[in-house]
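Priority: medium. Attachment 1 of 2:
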């Protein structure tokens, strides 16, 4: 067995991992105890990485060869790399010749490595002379970038993870860190346990698992953050809690901000934000008077039409109270993706250049042109993400090159995005996974390597650069992203005089050029080399004269602005782009699930990661359900100005009144439907708005105005079955064609609940298909569904009533001298779902039921009791087992939780379920 140190490819915490491999097979993964980001911890997603790289997964979902479609709608055909890249180069050359360089655009990803990013940036801005290159980091971090630059002068988080251990007050706002950055949240939990006197404030419209740790929870109304921050500053000024000495010595612009917040009285703020007046005073006092206050924030601030203003207004509070530049104090933006920071470092956004240079600055453009050896860098700003796809939809951009991201799932206003992909003359998709929705629109598919196969660097949320290393070779003909871009660029160069702009043969050669571009800049890393990074990840800046990176910035009170002073931002409050109104009375919020990542191209390959949240749903407050006369599980139309989705509804006490929540992950791969006119609708982003912040150009993915009405779809369908592990994902791809036939359909994998260490050997896998329609579909649709789930290849009990549109099939298999349900289909009447699904999922003996397996309506005698939802993914522990244990144990909640963990092991591996376990320990009383 070989062990390789690398970095996790999921969130911006940047956890170190140790990959175990045998030959070309990754066999295991564990946290790297020497990595300063995680010290050996991993979350549910990170601890299952090796399962996503198993050969049986790779064979079913990976793009293994270059593929080309001769025409739209046709099946792609395998081609050679030379043929693929020659075609791409000739097509780009022709489009640029006929329409100019701005007729092409590159849309890349925060999951690329820094070296990949650097080559793409140089390719677009240096060789093709277009600034039309943007990244999905525009969707998550651009408001944080703009906020830092507006106030502190540079895109540089001034804090580090160690500050969690020194903070006396932690203000978590717009972040469900328990789900989005779970390893960092474990550190917050531990810091609170060591120092219970430290205060934690959580501000979020939803009472998430993160809020369970709060000493003060602020259930803010969506989009009112700027008003809250201005109101807190108003109180700080009134009570004398600001630091006039620091303001005078190190900042500018405070008088304008002071005049602005004068009108933000506690009464106005409480009414606007939906908060209690006394809670505002408590929050202001803790923030301002604590010896050290640390803010942790993420998409709740960033993904907004006021994203830059929200970030800047929060940083105002730190500057006004001198809570910056020392241990435990500062505004800390938590990066969403593993290398969003690295992409910003090399200028991978439409408005940036390498090493934090600004495209709008002529001197910066001249510096980079000279550094690259090109005549000039174009001065016109490039199209940002939303603008780029709108331009393609309008016919202005003719060619799109999309790398390592899935805009047909992740971008807002999917109708426009899909029109762009259909109208573009050429769509190139460079991707590791063939199953993403965007691949369906590609004229050219280029197979890329992915985690466990790549070499390079990434930068995490605390400015720490880590090595990414390959444990195995990439499968099939997959190539590294940087190598694909270099090969393409060299073909475009043609007979260009002089040396190539792309002489790179290794990722280290690219990194060395990037390193040199940082000399003298705020992120100077000229003191680093690959050998040093092999030994230990390092934070920037790390100039040539340094012996280590800098943990914190601005400790001397000097900021990277012309006068060395930080700048207060007098930004006004604006409501969301789509405030609730009579026609659309609900505020739709989006966010993350605990065990899933982005569009689920990787995590969605594992049934066990669907254990915690098995199917898509829209969550609403119980009182709203009662008011609308909706019951748990009813199908509803969730409708915005852009479209309508059908989803089952769930009651949730986390949600505020007149609010609704849908997880961001549910895209076309897992959730589809048809509009009233027959147009396909797919995923939550069919209804989100593309309105964006005017400064950062980041769209308001967190908020849209919707109406919610019961869906009258009388014909329902449920089908599920166990399948060979090597067939599950390929079968899911085949089922996508059937999903497109229904106004509502979802198809998700599921698995048994074997502990993680046994998963590879003992865990069974299957698929669940659920749909609803106005009437029964043709018989051949159900026959195809039965065939795909294997019902036609096993002993099957059947019932059909054509007049009622009902059909049932229960497939059984003899095992251990009894029968087990292996697959089932309920069509037209799914009322027996509960007990039949329980028999299948728990693999219980079914022989005694006989023909009762086809019974309708009420449960039969001795119906099996369904287990609750899975809480602990690592050990497969369900909610009912946890509740029984807690009810049978005595003592305070802390002691019962410790007993629970000792006996059932839940919460003792990755810890992602610990907040939920704590909540259950408080709510479940001893019998």
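Attachment 2 of 2:
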């Amino acid at each position: 067995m070989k062990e390789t140190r690398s970095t996790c490819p999921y969130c911006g915490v940047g956890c170190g991992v140790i990959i175990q491999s045998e030959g070309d097979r990754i066999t295991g993964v564990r946290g790297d105890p020497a990595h300063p980001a995680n010290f050996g911890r991993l979350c549910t997603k990170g601890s299952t990485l090796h399962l996503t790289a198993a050969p049986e997964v790779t064979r079913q979902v990976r793009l293994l060869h270059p593929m080309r479609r001769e025409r739209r709608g046709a099946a792609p055909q395998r081609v050679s790399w030379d043929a693929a890249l020659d075609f791409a180069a000739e097509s780009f050359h022709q489009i640029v010749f006929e329409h100019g360089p701005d007729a092409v655009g590159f849309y890349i990803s925060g999951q690329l490595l820094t070296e990949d990013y650097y080559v793409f940036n140089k390719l677009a801005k240096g060789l093709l002379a277009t600034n039309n290159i943007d990244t999905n980091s525009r969707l998550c971090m651009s408001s944080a970038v703009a906020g830092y630059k507006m106030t502190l002068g540079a895109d540089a988080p001034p804090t580090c993870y160690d500050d969690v251990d020194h903070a006396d007050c932690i203000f978590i706002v717009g972040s469900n860190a328990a789900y989005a950055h779970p390893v960092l949240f474990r550190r917050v939990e531990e810091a609170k346990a060591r120092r219970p006197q430290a205060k934690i404030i959580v501000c979020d419209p939803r009472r998430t698992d993160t809020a369970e740790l709060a000493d003060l929870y602020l259930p803010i109304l969506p989009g009112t953050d700027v008003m809250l921050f201005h109101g807190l500053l108003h109180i700080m000024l009134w009570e004398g809690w600001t630091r006039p000495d620091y303001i005078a010595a190190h900042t500018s612009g405070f008088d304008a901000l002071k005049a602005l917040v004068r009108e933000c009285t506690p009464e106005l703020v409480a009414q606007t934000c939906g908060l209690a007046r006394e809670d505002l005073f408590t929050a202001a006092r803790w923030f301002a008077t604590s010896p050290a206050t640390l803010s942790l924030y993420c998409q709740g601030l960033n993904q907004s039409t006021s994203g830059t203003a929200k970030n800047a207004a929060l940083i105002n509070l730190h500057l006004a109270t001198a809570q910056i530049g020392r241990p435990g104090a500062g505004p800390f933006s938590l990066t969403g993706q593993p290398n969003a920071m690295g992409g910003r470092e090399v200028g991978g956004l439409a408005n940036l250049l390498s090493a934090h240079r600004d495209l709008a600055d002529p001197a910066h453009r001249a510096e980079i042109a000279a550094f690259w050896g090109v005549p000039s860098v174009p001065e016109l700003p490039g199209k940002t993400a939303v603008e780029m796809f709108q331009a393609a939809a309008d016919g202005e951009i003719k060619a799109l090159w999309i790398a390592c991201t899935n805009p047909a799932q992740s971008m807002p206003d999917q109708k426009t995005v899909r029109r762009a992909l259909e109208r573009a003359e050429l769509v190139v998709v460079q991707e590791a996974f063939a199953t993403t929705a965007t691949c369906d629109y590609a004229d050219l598919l280029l197979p890329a390597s992915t985690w466990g196969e790549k070499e390079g660097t990434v930068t995490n949320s605390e400015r720490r650069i880590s090595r990414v290393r390959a444990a195995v070779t990439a499968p099939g003909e997959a190539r590294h992203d940087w190598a694909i871009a270099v090969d393409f660029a060299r073909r475009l160069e043609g007979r260009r005089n002089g040396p190539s702009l792309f002489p790179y043969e290794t990722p280290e050669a690219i990194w060395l050029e990037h390193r040199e571009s940082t000399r003298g800049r705020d992120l100077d890393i000229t003191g680093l080399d690959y050998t040093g990074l092999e030994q230990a990840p390092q934070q920037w800046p790390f100039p040539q004269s340094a012996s280590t990176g800098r943990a914190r910035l601005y400790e001397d009170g000097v900021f990277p602005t012309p006068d060395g002073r930080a700048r207060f931002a007098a930004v006004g409050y604006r409501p969301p782009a789509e405030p609730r109104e009579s026609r659309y009375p609900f505020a739709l919020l989006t966010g993350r699930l605990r065990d899933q990542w982005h569009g689920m191209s990787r995590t969605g390959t594992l049934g066990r990661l669907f254990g915690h949240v098995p199917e898509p749903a829209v969550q609403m407050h119980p009182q709203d359900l009662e008011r609308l006369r909706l019951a748990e599980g009813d199908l509803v139309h969730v409708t915005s100005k852009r479209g309508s989705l059908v989803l089952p509804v769930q009651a949730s006490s986390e949600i505020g009144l007149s609010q609704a929540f849908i997880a961001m992950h549910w895209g076309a791969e897992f959730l589809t439907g048809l509009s009233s006119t027959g147009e396909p609708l797919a995923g939550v982003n069919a209804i989100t708005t593309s309105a964006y912040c005017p400064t950062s150009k980041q769209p308001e993915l967190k908020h849209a105005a919707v109406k919610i009405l019961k869906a009258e779809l009388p014909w329902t369908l449920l089908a599920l079955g166990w399948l060979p592990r090597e067939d599950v994902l390929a079968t899911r791809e085949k089922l996508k064609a059937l999903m497109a036939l229904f106004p509502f359909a979802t198809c998700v994998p599921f698995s048994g609940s074997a502990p993680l260490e046994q998963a590879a050997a003992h865990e069974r896998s299957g698929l669940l298909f659920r749909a609803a329609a106005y009437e029964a579909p043709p018989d051949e649709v159900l026959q195809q569904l039965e065939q795909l789930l294997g019902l036609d290849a096993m002993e099957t009990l059947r019932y059909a009533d054509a007049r009622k549109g009902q059909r049932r099939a229960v497939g059984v298999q003899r095992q251990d001298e009894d029968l087990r349900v292996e697959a089932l289909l309920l069509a037209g009447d799914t009322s027996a779902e509960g007990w039949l699904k329980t028999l299948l999922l728990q693999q219980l003996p079914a022989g005694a039921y006989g023909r009762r397996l086809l019974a309708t309506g009420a449960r039969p005698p001795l119906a099996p009791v369904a287990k609750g939802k899975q809480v602990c993914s690592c050990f497969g522990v369900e909610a009912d087992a946890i509740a029984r244990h807690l009810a049978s144990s005595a003592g305070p909640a802390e002691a019962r939780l410790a007993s629970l963990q000792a006996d059932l092991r839940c919460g003792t591996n990755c810890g992602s379920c610990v907040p939920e376990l704590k909540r259950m320990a408080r709510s479940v009383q001893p019998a």
